[in-house]
Structures are given as C-alpha cells and as structure tokens.
Please model this.
Amino acid sequence: MGQGQGLNELINREAIRDLMVRYYSAVDRRNFEGVGRCFTPDAVVDFDGPIANGAGEILAYTSQIGRWPTSTHFMGNHLVELKGDRAKVETYAVATLRTVAEGREVDLVSGLRYLDEMVQTDEGWLIGRRVMVHDWRRSDPVPWA
Amino acid sequence: MEQGRPRSAWPRWLVLATPADIGDKADGGIQTLADKAAVQEVVWRYLVGADRRDFGLMASSYAADATVNFPSVTCEGLDAIIDHCRGVERLAGTWHLVGTQAIDIHEDSATVETYSTVWYRSVSTERTVDLIKGLRYLDTMVRKEGRWLIQHQVITEDWGRTDLVSTTG
Model:
C-alpha cells in the first residue's frame, strides 16, 4: 500500500467513525434533523423488526425515543471494512433509557449492534442500509438517584 | 464479589508515546496511525469473535505460539487458547464492549491495554442472570509477515457482579 493510499484509508475510517459519533449525539440530544443528515434519502433501516423506507420513515421511527426523558448511547467496538466508496461497518453501543414506571425510576439497558452499509457521497459518508440488532436488554430499578 | 483493590496493585503496563513522538517520524506519523488502527482491529477480532462464537475469527488474532494468562488459568499455544475460549458456548450469550484503549507501537512490537465491560448471560429454569465484569486485556503484539498478532496476553478481572435480569418496566 502506498503512503497516499494508506493516509486516504485512515481519513475515510475516521470520517466513518465520526458519522457514528454524530448519529448517537444527535439521537441523545433529540436533534432529529441531525439524525436525518446521517442517512441517504433512500436509506432503508431494519429496526430489529419494523422496517423504515426512506429518510421520512426513519425519522418518524427514531423520534419515538422522545418518549424517554433521557437516553445515553455509549459507543464501543467499531469495525470497518472499506471497499472504495463503500463500507461495511459494525458498531456496538450500550443504550441506557431512564424512565418512570409505576412511580419508580427504571433504567432500560440494551446491548445494541448497528450493521451498516455506508456510501461516500458529495455530502460525505452516509448510511444507506442499516440493520439494528438488540442483542440483550435488562430493566434495572434505580434504588437512589 | 471481589472487593475493590488499591490502585497501586494494578499492573504497570504502558509508557505511552506522546504526540510529539509520532510527529517526529519522517512520514509524519502515518505508519504509526496505520499500525494503531491495525492493532485495534486485532483486539476487536478476538472480542467480537467470542460474541459471534466465530472461533476462526478469534484465532486470527493470535500467534501460533501465543500464551494467554486468563484470570483462572494459563494456556500456551493457539489450540489450548481457543479450547479455553470455547467455554463461552456454555453461556446463553456474551457481549464484550471495548472502552478505554492505550496503544504503544515500537517498530515491530506493540503493547496494548484495553478496558472491556462484559455481559455474560446465564439462563436456567429458575432465573436469568447477567454476570457483569470489568476486564482489562494487556496484550503484547508482534508484527509477523506484515500482520499484527498477539504473542502474550494477560486478562485481569478488576470487578464483577451478578445481577438478576428483569425485562419488565
């Protein structure tokens, strides 16, 4: 691999990582316009069951997270397989959603994986297809806060 | 459950390269950055490999003559290491989340410290529990024929707790 090619790959990997960081940040801040900027207009997302076709449906589904007063997506493992202007990306995140059930605070904690097909466009790297996998979840009462 | 141990008892592991060390390289540090990315991928391969039960993917992280000090046992050689790792198949699921990571590259060897929080789920007829642990992986890697591989790995368990799983509420 030539030096220029190696540098180009590093820049692309960083841009892809940055896209994921901006996605989680936008979701947790309820900035749904920012969420929309992460996807191609014709993107398809499988939310581990419900399928959203196109940016409008994706935003409508994602905005349901507004039911929870707060959410935190803690991003972890991030695997990138680059092929030219396409990339397959797998990202782990632990999502903590705090809610109130029967007068008690509860944390709904989930282990999520995002399996993304990304594409490099004039607007930078964007998500074209996504499969979201809920690997595990648990519901923990908050004893004190 | 293990009690917290004093900070001083933690193995001293890394002397980190400073940004200046990277910037001083003739190529502006591009090779060091590429090596860091490759080394991170080695770590992800063995952790994600365990979660997927893909032992071929796991094995691709280790040198054939690698040694691993697991918290309970030491395994020498790739076959013994992978045999031990197959223990995860007894669990309903495992999940290894990668967090803090410090990487020090020296030419053809690297020292890597990785924090991981893990969830090991056990399901029985009586109850479902998550064994949640804070692990650190202390890796010595070598570059062999252009590929980074783990030569020696020490896994420390810094904390652990067992929590009943409820999915209501």
Chain A has a mean pLDDT of 93.
